[in-house]
Design goal:
With about 375 residues, this protein is of the alpha+beta class. The chain has 11 helices and 11 strands.
């Protein structure tokens, strides 16, 4: 297992950072958060540069790269608090279709993702359940003309703008992995209720699936355990990638706060010279590097299909969750009164990190999953 970045991965990081510094200033993030304007120009740049094609299989017109390359991009997107549908489309829908679908569905859906002609969302979470596909309660009833859905899905990332939503449900009178289905459902077939999200730069919605109809050719794989296992692999990948994005945002919090501590003076000296502030930064840096190391290890386990991938992804999400909690608190407190204002950008970073911490399971939920996987 190669634990160092290759020259190509380092070059990818540098190019992504350069593009985002030019095309995604904080003024754009603030405009999206305050007015809801769609970041279409930024999305077009991402598509033109091939970022949406990174992990799409080559037979479908993608680049066929692994989770580590996508993680490199997502860390930089998190650092810039980039708005838009990139995370949901590339880190959730692409793995779901790639793992559960066949090659013709790769061509149909992932080819369009690579070209930037469709965006997507993954609808798996429900009230009171985990992200494990075996726990879903929404139903999909087969019929002559296709499938009829019923039930609800909660906190679907970018579900308000996605063209296609991968809905995870189950056939009636089934339990566990039996009867689990994944259906690529057009957004206009589902009733969407926007949620007032903590992070206003990206949308969250609840879905009312009742009476939504989906043609048979939009079913990914065969209903049952094989689909449940494929979706579990996809959510592991998505979890590792959202953890990496969280690390990028936490790095930005650290950098902005450190620069402030060097400039802000009290008693005629920078506050960063105070021992108490130095201790805070030491703790923040340890949490940040721990989260980064575990997140990239998880992405590498996914890329190499290492048997430790499930434990690694949950460890990464727990570490990143701990990191955002510490850095969000200290980032605001070290800034003092200005850190609480809307006019300062700190809240935009903190909102993004705390939203990512809730997606696909909290740190507490992933610790519980680790214990179950270890048989504790």
């Amino acid at each position: 297992m190669q634990l160092e970045f290759t020259a190509e991965q380092e070059a990818l990081r540098d190019s992504v950072r350069a593009v985002l510094e030019r095309e995604c200033p904080m003024s754009l993030v603030r405009a999206v958060a305050e007015t809801g304007v769609a970041p279409n120009a930024l999305w077009k740049h991402m598509v033109d540069l091939g970022w949406t094609a990174l992990t799409v299989p080559e037979p479908a017109g993608g680049l066929g790269l692994g989770a580590v390359e996508l993680a490199v991009v997502l860390e930089e997107l998190g650092r810039a608090v980039a708005p838009g549908p990139f995370l949901a489309t590339t880190a959730q829908v692409t793995p779901a279709v790639r793992e559960a679908g066949d090659e013709s569905q790769w061509q149909r859906f992932l080819g369009a993702v690579a070209e930037g002609t469709i965006t997507g969302a993954l609808a798996i979470t429900e009230p009171g359940t985990s992200v494990d596909p075996a726990a879903v309660q929404a139903q999909a009833t087969p019929g002559d003309a296709g499938w009829t859905l019923s039930g609800t899905k909660t906190f679907v990332l970018d579900g308000d703008t996605a063209d296609e939503i991968v809905v995870v449900a189950r056939q009636p009178e089934t339990a566990g992995e039996d009867g689990v289905v994944a259906l690529v459902t057009p957004r206009d077939a589902i009733r969407v209720t926007p949620v007032r999200a903590l992070d206003p730069s990206r949308g969250l919605v609840h879905l009312d699936l009742d009476d939504a109809r989906v043609p048979t050719d939009r079913l990914l794989g065969a209903p049952g355990p094989s689909t449940a296992r494929a979706l579990r692999r996809a959510t592991d990948e998505a979890t590792a990638l959202v953890a990496v994005e969280m690390v990028g945002t936490c790095q930005a919090i650290f950098d902005v706060t450190l620069e402030f501590a060097k400039q802000r003076e009290q008693f005629g000296v920078p506050i960063g010279s105070f021992q108490a502030i130095k201790h805070k930064f030491a703790d923040m840096l340890i949490a940040l590097e721990r989260a980064r190391a575990t997140s990239y290890f998880a992405a590498l386990c996914v890329a190499e299909d290492d048997p430790r991938r499930a434990i690694a992804t949950s460890t990464a999400k727990a570490a990143a969750g701990d990191c955002q909690r510490l850095l969000g608190k200290e980032g605001i407190q070290i800034h003092g009164g200005i850190g609480y204002t809307w006019e300062h950008d700190m809240h935009l970073y903190v909102r993004r990190a705390k939203t990512d911490a809730q997606l696909l399971g909290t740190a507490h939920e992933h610790r519980r999953r680790i214990a179950a996987l270890l048989g504790l």
